[in-house]
Each structure stands twice: as C-alpha cells, then as structure tokens.
Amino acid sequence: MMDSSQADFFGDGQSPSTHHSPSTPEASRLKVLPRGREKLSPAQQRFNKLLARVENLGRQLQDLQQLADKLRPPHLARMAELKRKMDEARREMLVFLHQRLQRKGLTAAQQKAMREILQSLLPSSGPVDESDPELAELCSIYAPPPLEDDLGDQANMVREQMLDMAQSVLGKNLDREAFKGIDSPEELMEALIQQVHTFQEAEDARQAARRSRRPPSARQLKAQEQAQDAKAALRSIYRQLASALHPDREPDPVERERKSALMSQANAAYERGDLTALLQLQLQAEQVDEAHIAQMADDKLAALSLLLKDQVKTLEGELGDAEMRLSVELGIPVGARMKEALLTRLLQEEQEELADVVSQMQDDLVRVRDDAQLKLWLREQAALAREQEREEAFLARLGGGFF
User: Fold this and answer.
1) How many other CB atoms are found less than 10 A from the CB of residue 393?
2) Rounded CA separation 81/309 (Å)
3) Of the residues 132, 322, 326, 356, which has the maximum number of CB atoms within 10 A of its CB?
4) Which residues of 312-324 are buried (b: 16+ CB within 10 A; e: fewer)?
C-alpha cells in the first residue's frame, strides 16, 4: 500500500474534470432530439449513444475521484495506526524473547526455534531507527550476515505484491522482467500503466497489420474518408471558437477576461480532441444552438461520431488507469461501478484483517510470559512454519508446470 501523502491516484494531481468536461445541463443540450413525429436517423442515434457514453465515462471518473477522496484518508489513517501497533507488538516480542533466551529452562531445540523467530521479527524494510538503540542492538545480534542477493528482498517483495494486485485487476499476466530494479511505488505504478498501454498498442498494431494485408474494402475506404472528415470538423469547430473568443479583439476588460478563460479551455480541448467540450464552448459562446446540431446532415454527424468514439476510447483508458492506481493504493480490487457501501465494506474487511493480526500478536505477548505457554507457543509456531513451507513448495510446483 502506498503512503497517504503521495499524489492522487489519477497520477498528475488533477481531477477528472480538469481532463474532460463533467456532465452539465450544457452537455445535455448537445443531444439530438426528434422533431415532431420524425424518428431519429441511424447517424443521429449513434451520435446520441456515443455522446451518452462520453458523459457516462466522465461521470464515472468524477464519481470515482470523489469516492476515493472520501474513503482514502480515514482508511489509510486506520491502516497506519494498526501498523504502528503491530510494530510495537513486534518490538515488545523481540525484547521479551531475547531476554528469555538469556535465562535457563529451554532445550537446545527450543532455543534454536526462538532464535529463528527472533530473526523473523526483525524489521525487514530500511535501516533501524537510530533513536531506538535497543532495537538496533537486537538487529546486530540476530540479523544474519547480509548476502548481496538478499539486500533487495524487501523491495522485491513489495514489487511482487503490487504486480500481483495489478494482474488480478487487469486479468492478464505481466512481463515481470520489465520491472526489475524499480523500487519506488510511484515509479512502479507508472511502469505498470506504461506496460498496459504497450499491450494495447501492440494489439492495435497487430490488428492494423492484418487489415493492411488486405486491399481496403469499400467500407474501409468510407471509414478513412470519415476519419479525415472528423479531423476537419474538429479543426473547423476550433477555428470558429478561436475567431469568436480571441481576447485581443475584445475591448471590454471583463469580457476579455471571460473570453481568455474560454479560449484557454478551447485550446486544451482541441489538444486532447475533446469534441464535447468544444461543442459546449460553442453553446456558451452562442455560436450554435440545439437546433443547429439537430439539423446537421448525417455525414457530418457520422464524422463527429468518430471523434466521440475516440473520446470514448481515451476515457475508457483513463478510467482503467484510475481503477488500477486506486486498487494498488488501497490493496483491494476497485471498479468504477462499485457502490460506496461495497467499497467501504471491503476496506473495513482489510482493516479488520490487520486488526486481527495485531490482536493475535498482543495475545501472544501475554501467553509467552508463562513458561508453559511459551513452550506450547514455540511448537505452534514451528507447525505453522512447516505448513507455510508446504504451501510455498506446492505453489512453486504449480508455477513450474507441476501439472
């Protein structure tokens, strides 16, 4: 799990509304409505369907950000508090077992088991806090000599956990070799996002290569023509806005400031190919009205629909990135369609799971102070260790093609 002080899971500190215009009454005015008893043409229906999809994805991004902003701080604060208690219990157990090891009454096997437990309780991430000399001394006594191959074990473990979470969210295997040497959670997240994009680009390239081996059909030629029309339409809308909103042509200071802000939005929308934002700006600038959109010819609407289709693809990618970032950050699979109640319950379960670990550690601290219970506890820990070794060996056989 990442530190709560890092940038938000959208990756650049910006909310979705800074990337794409949120759903507003202005956006709903873009929908083509039937006139009288006339039915919408297929081109008009497709335009409306894609427009609704763009708005829905933008709303999902916005809702996900708001939900994350609401649930993330208390969850990470609770997890940090539980981890603090876990570290305290681990330290107390370390000190007690060390002191008990100095006294008589333990067999050689029990002493060996206790030393192994002491080694497992040592901090495994980063240097020991110099303000805790007692813990530093215990580390120097029980920590095995560091082997060069083992120096990055903690970073490797964190990296593998993040990759496992990402794979469960994506539903596909990752090229883990590409992540070797990346220890920073933030850098690892960006590398994960990049590999997902690389997968998609490779798949797009394969499909394009298959299409290129065949002569273009009449349908493909028409699609290419529509793609050119779409680019021309976007450029035309932007130029109309630029002409109407250019602040240097406005003598009134207040109106100049308003136009300057709108022009900045138009530039950003054109840069990312955001048709809905440009059309909304046209409505605000009173360059067009609802009737203008409804009266567009089907071929013009078909071109605009291609732009909306591109927006849908972009928004779907951004939503997938956001879901993956938040899943890794919170340690649970997160989907944009998840209700607040479900996400809250999953986070509570994660907290309860860690709280159970803390409670067990605190109970163990009470048990080991009784010598008879200490020896029973040592046998239990040895049995647990053997069971874990068997499970790890079984998983290793599975990973190596055991079947």
Assistant:
1) 10
2) 46
3) 326
4) bebbeebbbbbbb
Residue 194: closest CA among 317, 86, 332, 64:
317
The rounded distance, in Å, linking the Cα atoms of 69 and 155 is 28
Structure tokens at 65: 């950000």
- Per-residue pLDDT tens over the stretch 85-117: 999 999 999 999 999 999 999 999 999 999 999
Question: pLDDT by residue (tens digit) across 119-169?
Answer: 888 876 555 666 788 888 888 888 766 544 444 555 676 677 777 767 766
Max avg pLDDT among 33-42, 308-317, 339-348: 339-348
Q: Is the model's pLDDT at 383 over the cut of 50?
A: yes
Rg, C-alpha atoms of the chain = 30
Name the more confident of 279 and 70: 70
Cα–Cα nearest to 170, from 327, 337, 54, 59:
327
Q: Can you tell me whether residue 182 is helix, strand or coil? A: coil
Q: Which structure tokens are listed for 77?
A: 């604060």
Q: Where are the alpha helices (DSSP H) in 102-125?
A: 108-121
Contact 246, 240 (CB under 8 A): no
Higher pLDDT: 27 or 300? It is 300
Residue 387, exposed/middle/buried by CB under 10 A (0-12, 13-18, 19+)? exposed
Q: Which tokens in the block code for residue 149? A: 């191959």
- Residue whose structure tokens are 């647990």: 384
pTM of the model: 0.66
**301 within 8 A of 32, measured Cβ to Cβ:** yes
Q: Please, where are the H alpha helices in 273-332? A: 275-284, 290-294, 298-330
Amino acid of residue 183: D
Give me 142's structure tokens. Answer: 């029980």
Residue 382 phi/psi, 5-degree rounding, is -65, -40
Q: Which structure tokens are listed for 192?
A: 């994960």
